[in-house]
Amino acid sequence: MQGRFHLYEGYSLCKVTFPVRIFKLLGVETLIVTNASGGLCPDFKVGDIMLIKDHINLPGFAGQHPLCGPNDERFGIRFPCMSDAYNKDLRKLALEISQELNYTNFVREGVYCMVSGPNFETIAEARMLQILGCDSVGMSTVPEVTVAKHCGLRVFGLSLITNKVSLDYSREEKVNHEEVLEISKMRAEHLQMMVNTLIARAHLLDEGINVN
Ligand SMILES: O=P(O)(O)O[C@H]1O[C@H](CO)[C@@H](O)[C@H]1O
């Protein structure tokens, strides 16, 4: 996909995730998601690439969930398991690839949290998310991943840390979308290289071939 639909743009989560079901019907087996997010983990730097290990579906907690409503059994079961949302083998492979590409000083792993946006977080909200165990925060991705898991797709995700989230009332810097776009451009080639290499190698996992 070139870009995506967001909840904050006014689309329902059913519409936001519709492309994922189209992928499923087209025979797609693996969904690779990328996004931009704000870093909450104190160890993260702007420009880091975070392999998404897990997520927190904050809108889902409040009933904004793409699978609410009658379950469409053609795609998946009523109560899908999400404890293995981000495929372990693909994450391991991505870590190996980041070592080979010499990217280790800016590749991390962490938990992504979705908020609805469109405003960036208040300091109290950011502190709460950090206490909840979130390493980064953004306004997308989780609905698509949830629907992908529901219909049995394998998922891999990368989140680019485009800014540090303000956690301190004395911090002068203000988060803004221009910074998000600028950092995304700066890291675009690295991200492309990681995704291209992963795609080239991922089929070896399916064939049970040792990729080392
Ligand atoms: O669409 P993604 O990559 O998640 O981008 C993130 O960056 C935008 C805010 O700057 C929001 O859309 C947020 O979700």
TrEMBL record:
Residue span, Nucleoside phosphorylase domain: 9-200
Gene Ontology molecular function, alphabetical: purine-nucleoside phosphorylase activity
Top-rank taxon, per record: Eukaryota
Record protein name field: purine-nucleoside phosphorylase
Catalytic activity: guanosine + phosphate = alpha-D-ribose 1-phosphate + guanine; 2'-deoxyinosine + phosphate = 2-deoxy-alpha-D-ribose 1-phosphate + hypoxanthine; 2'-deoxyguanosine + phosphate = 2-deoxy-alpha-D-ribose 1-phosphate + guanine; inosine + phosphate = alpha-D-ribose 1-phosphate + hypoxanthine
Family, as annotated: Belongs to the PNP/MTAP phosphorylase family.
CDD domains (UniProt xref): PNP-EcPNPII_like (cd09009)
SUPFAM superfamilies in the record: Purine and uridine phosphorylases (SSF53167)
Enzyme Commission number(s): 2.4.2.1
Record pathway: Purine metabolism; purine nucleoside salvage
Keyword Calcium: no
Keywords: Glycosyltransferase, Transferase
Parts forming coiled coils: none
